[in-house]
TrEMBL record:
This is Phosphoribosylamine--glycine ligase. PANTHER family: PHOSPHORIBOSYLAMINE--GLYCINE LIGASE (PTHR43472), PHOSPHORIBOSYLAMINE--GLYCINE LIGASE, CHLOROPLASTIC (PTHR43472:SF1). Belongs to the GARS family. SUPFAM superfamilies: Glutathione synthetase ATP-binding domain-like (SSF56059), PreATP-grasp domain (SSF52440), Rudiment single hybrid motif (SSF51246). Pfam families: GARS_A, GARS_C, GARS_N. It comes from Algoriphagus ornithinivorans. Its EC number is 6.3.4.13. It catalyses: 5-phospho-beta-D-ribosylamine + glycine + ATP = N(1)-(5-phospho-beta-D-ribosyl)glycinamide + ADP + phosphate + H(+). The keyword ATP-binding applies. GO terms for biological process: 'de novo' IMP biosynthetic process; purine nucleobase biosynthetic process. GO terms for molecular function: ATP binding; metal ion binding; phosphoribosylamine-glycine ligase activity. Keywords: ATP-binding, Ligase, Nucleotide-binding, Purine biosynthesis. Residues 111-319 form the ATP-grasp domain. The keyword NADP does not apply.
Amino acid sequence: MNILLLGSGGREHAFAWKIVQSPKCSQLYVAPGNAGTSEIAINLSIGVTDFEAIKAAILDKKIDLVVVGPEAPLVEGLVDYLLSFDETKTIPVVGPPQLGATLEGSKDFSKRFMQRNNIPTAAYETFSVHQLEEGLAYLEKQSLPIVIKADGLAAGKGVLICETLEDAKASLKEMLQDQKFGEASSKVVIEEFLTGIELSVFVATDGKSYKILPEAKDYKRIGEGDTGLNTGGMGAVTPVVFADKAFMDKVEELIVQPTVAGLAAEDIPYKGFLFIGLMNNNGNPYVIEYNVRMGDPETEAVLPRIESDFLELLWAIGTGNLKDYELSISPDYATTVVMVSGGYPGSYEKGFEISLPTSVEGATIFHAGTSSNSEGKLVNQGGRVLAVTGRGKDLETALKNSYAAVNQIKWNKAYHRKDIGQDILKLIK
């Protein structure tokens, strides 16, 4: 079959790498893709929210399956758009319509969904700009630290953990009054701070059945020891030792099952991936957030552990036949180390030539923010540039393979964290 994959990051390169391994893949197109996807697929110069151009490409390339990588086109209604035309409405899409995508597009919507379906999550209240005084009064009654979240999409920057009441009040005013995140903070969710260890659980669902993919832990902060500014993710590890069978059984019973059942009961169509950000609080799972797609960089660690045909999984999701799909997971460890442009997540310079090794043992290099310059040389084009995934029978071997590959990659001002997975290693030992 011919597949169109939307996106340009490390997640999409990992998807592409896995899709082309399937004998059922005739031709893969990636829009817009990156320098890595261009080596294994055909890149199309189309933005992920250019719905007209996406529709034209689907018809022109005789696409049989559309796979949506990032959240923006889903939240903006790509699936609904394609369903509105006779010539595209029968083509399966992996990704939910706009209503389902609101689980990520609105924190308030997702919290109310959890409340209605008795899904464990932090206590919260939502306030708009007209309720600023009520919000400030609410803060005075809460224990610290407290979490303040912009309701809408804010490129991963709309969540603040405030240690003092003064900081919390100032942050609330900045979001609501000063529109710090624009339309995304026209409403703000104030949430209790949960303690414990965070992890990501990934679920594939066709709206009726579901399959739980390997769980992962990611590393958000730019600095070692989880210090400094939040980023899109500096690394990931799977499996994680604190997500044992007893804990994952609770996740399935208390969160995954009521989430999928709740979507069906509320007539929210959903064919795609659900990324459930969780807190393990003394062995009990609480939902921090839903995302309506796979995570990045967790995907780059999770997909190498899937042994069954990944394209068949995507087809089963899109066509509503997931119950018949046999998911096979490797017991191996996979660890991803993200290499970024110096200065990220602040300002950084682009266009530096990247030197890659001709081959790496036990590791795969996924491209994220890369492109080719006018001379055809590989250069850094974004903040997160490469995601290097190592595999191994144990965590130590996987990390060794990741870092051995990382140490062979060079470009001016490149940066990576040297402590990915070290906290998990300590727990194991």
